[in-house]
Write a structure and sequence with these properties.
By secondary structure, the chain is α+β, with helices and mostly antiparallel strands. It is about 15% helix and about 30% strand. The protein is built from three helices and twelve strands.
Length: about 180
Amino acid sequence: MLRERGDSCPFVIVSRERSGVCCVARNVLPVFRHHHHFCGAPTLKLTTHGFLHITISVSDLPQAEAFYHDLLGCEIVNRNPIMTFMKTGDDYFVLTKLANHVRPNPPGSAAESTTLFHHAFLVDDAEFDRALAHFRENGIDHYLSDFVHRSFPGRRHLYIFDPDGNSVELVTMISAELAGAPA
């Protein structure tokens, strides 16, 4: 089924029920048997209460587990042959082994254009400085952003890659000095 873009429908929707794939604009979403397409379907707005977890795709689970545990200090909560459930602060994430893992950003050294799709981990200023010094001393590819975020002011941002090329941001807690607020 192909629906053309119209005034009342901002999406171009292609549905292939046999393959179980629905292409919405440039995004690929799974199609469920009773899936209602965005256009023409009744509006539904749910109230969510946050995330239980996010999922990070990896190709080598033990290597990814070591990166997130040994470098970032995340706690291993549980594991099975294809997933490792981890915790950082009060938040959870799952490393999931996929045979067809695809790096989400273009290849290349850490830069704004190669780190746009990322997972941001909160660290305090001392840990941020310690990480930056470690990356510099050991020649680890990183990108120290000097961009002033309007959405998240008062923070410093540093990007690295995990072993699978997923971009990981280390971001500081809010600093009154960087936010422009009175100290």
